[in-house]
User: Fold STAS domain-containing protein from Actinoplanes nipponensis.
Amino acid sequence: MTDAVTVDAVAAGDHVCLTFSDPDERLDIVAEFVAEGLGCNHKVLCYTHSLTPQRLSDELTWRGVAVPPAVRSGQLDVTDGGQLWAPGGPATAAAMVEALAGEIEQAAGQGYAGLRMTADMCWATRPSATVPELRAFEEAAAGLCADGRFTAVCQYDRDGFDPVTLAFAAEAHPKTVAALAYHDDAVLRICRQHRPPGVRISGELDYTRLEPLRQALTEALRLDTDIHVDMSRARFVDVTAATMIAKTALSLPADRHLIVTCGPAVAETFRLVGAGEAGQFRMQPSR
Assistant:
């Protein structure tokens, strides 16, 4: 049975599946995984497909990962997935696993405590890729993790894969990683955000969902110095919920802040409830 964990519970030697539909949530998890690897003296490989290497590097940097110095030192490599999946021809499991095995040995020879890899698995949606090759790769990757020197997070976009493949991906990994969700339904998702630390809210938030909002803010108050409330994907917030967020900011000491990132409609609601009157409250536009 697959265990569901948060990214901070991923340990050396884990082979983990990340299935996602929210690209911001995916990048938050990837950024935390990369940052923890750098902090543990692991060499880190990021294979990307849906984003260019430069765009992924920029996204990681925005989330507080020290990308430029890590790249310069050789500890971090952000590269196009084609360098692993099909460097000289059709993607084959044998070639990919051979390449990764070489990376593990090279990292050990360079004095790193281990090798971390996070990979966009979109290569498997290419016409030249086959389901047997995907299965063979995941089975072999699990073997590479066995001695604890290799840790892998394989990313599967729910919009790019069919349900059968997604089910296989979950079964092929001993663990799945996801954000801690305080509320999740068709209308609203409230979850923990790692980078920058705080809460992510998407959808429509109103007075009927104050309890999970309170839970999320209370957790952030306990864990974080400055609290980031990412509402970039929130379509609506009512005055009751906005007031709760503003009062949370007001409860902070003067040297801590609550920073809300949101679009114009949500920003207007915060202005209506006078959130800006709290010196600890900050608001910034969505990226």
Q: What stands out?
A: The mean pLDDT is 92. DSSP finds ten helices and 14 strands in the chain. The chain has two domains: 3-177, 181-285. The two ends are 39 Å apart (CA to CA).
